[in-house]
Amino acid sequence: DVQEVSYENDEEMTKLTIDKNQNDFNNDETGKRQLLTLMANSADYYHYLSGSMIVTQTYQGNSIQYKYQFQINLDNYHSYIYQIASNSLKEQFYFRDQEKMYFYYGNLEQLETETLSKLQEENLLVIEKVPRDDILYQNSDQSLEQRIADLNSTRVPHDLFGDVAPYVFPEEIALYQLGLNYNNYHLSNTSFLEKETFLVEGSINQEYYNPGSISMIVDKQTGILLKYQYTADISSVEMVMEELLIDQAADEDYYLKYIKKI
User: How would you class 123 by CB atoms within 10 Å of its CB: exposed for 0-12, middle for 13-18, buried for 19 or more?
Assistant: First the structure.
């Protein structure tokens, strides 16, 4: 069953009504432009995300895999990004709220049982006081051409989205990897993770990237990427979303559980 997203208190509930995209896009210039606009403004179509993904980067036959669990609350501006231990990578935790960034390098058991002050004393937790980056709702009135021409016009607050930003707010992929040369890629309908989606396949924009093929599955309602692959001569990047809840409550809000526990 779909549950409402919970908020810490009534004052934090700043949720506004958001209409999800329900339109199908044709495989023509108009449809592809609509798709780019949806992807480049995906954060306008959701309040809260919770999910997990796997990102695999390969170079000259050597691969490294990153596994992430994430929760992003746009209305209250807090997030949780957990890099799960895999291969030679240690687990890492990143939290963000309106005023601070939290970098935790210990294990999950300590995070659950020890206070933040003790974790700081043990040099396992670094807290940086950095006010939120207020670019989320800027530049949305600019045309695609204006945003492509000005590399500083990004809407993506990387401080909030962390390492999962390219896929849950795929502005860069839309504007620079696909771009306005509509003959480079083909658009069709498909489904993935029990969601209606668009399938995009073609060649990456060589003005900004090395030549290669690109394919992605895009959530119809929000523009979020559910699957992505870019393959060049000696390298590739692949992302597969394992789970994604959009505007549904997860079992626990990990920011509230771990950072607001004191």
Answer: exposed
Instruction: Enumerate the β-bridge partners of residue 69.
Output: 52, 82
Query: In the chain, where does DSSP find H-type helix?
Result: 29-40, 108-113, 116-121, 144-149, 158-161, 165-168, 171-172, 254-258
Cα–Cα separations (whole angstroms), residue 106 to 37, 84, 88, 258: 40, 12, 15, 13
Stretches in the chain below the pLDDT threshold 50: 1-15, 262
Q: Which residues have C-beta within 8 Å of that of residue 134, sequence separation ≥ 6?
A: 157
Kind and range of the H or E element at 73? strand 62-73
Task: Identify the helix (H) or strand (E) that includes residue 57.
Answer: strand 48-59
pTM, full prediction: 0.90
Q: What are the φ and ψ backbone dihedral angles of 11, each rounded to 5 degrees?
A: -65, -30
3-state secondary structure of 231: strand
pLDDT in tens, 129-179: 999 978 888 888 899 999 999 988 899 999 999 999 999 999 999 999 999
Strand partners, 54: 67, 240
Are 133 and 158 spatial neighbours (Cβ–Cβ below 8 Å)? yes
The two structure tokens encoding residue 34: 């609509």
